[in-house]
Amino acid sequence: MKLKVLPPTLRKNNRYLTLDIKIENDIDKDDLVGIIWDACIRFKGECNTSNFNLWVMKFYEIEKTEEYYHYKAILRCQRGFVDEVRSSLALAAKYNGKKISISTIGLSGTIKASQKYI
Questions:
Q1: Which of 18, 24, 45, 81 could potentially form a cystine with 98 if both were Cys, beta carbons 3.0 to 4.6 Å apart?
Q2: Phi first, then psi: what are they for 11, rounded to 5°?
Q3: Residue 115: pLDDT above 90?
Q4: Boundaries of every domain in the chain
Q5: What distance in Å separates the CA atoms of residue 14 and residue 92, rounded to the nearest whole number?
């Protein structure tokens, strides 16, 4: 039995945030997912965070210096919750006792358009 694909009118509208991440130790994509979920749950709670429809689409390592590691990522969230996600990520300050800074450098409606910020 073949599954039907939802028509565009019934699909959720997504927005793609391009994130700039600076942290004192190295991380991978799974660590970033944990950081994002933890930040959103701490600020908005489990019920509101479940509505965000968060997903890390792409993860890039940009540069490694003596002071910090620099990463960029593309994060998908649902259209009406962009401000809540951005405020939650801005409040993330530590991960495993190390300082972290997450800022949003771009917002777009497609992955292709969000890649121009990287």
A1: 24
A2: -80, 155
A3: yes
A4: 14-117
A5: 23
pLDDT tens-digit series, residues 10-55: 888 999 999 999 999 999 999 999 999 999 999 999 999 999 999 9
Beta sheet of 98-108, edge-to-edge order: 55-64, 69-78, 14-23, 98-108, 94-95
For 25, half-sphere exposure in the C-beta direction (CA atoms, 13 angstrom radius) is: 7
Q: Which residue has the tokens 């292709």?
A: 112
Does residue 22 contact residue 69 with C-beta atoms inside 8 Å?
yes
Q: State both tokens at 96.
A: 């495993």
Residue whose structure tokens are 């799974």? 30
- End-to-end Cα spacing for the chain: 41
Amino acid letter for position 91: L
Q: What architecture is the 14-117 domain classified under in CATH?
A: 2-Layer Sandwich (3.30)
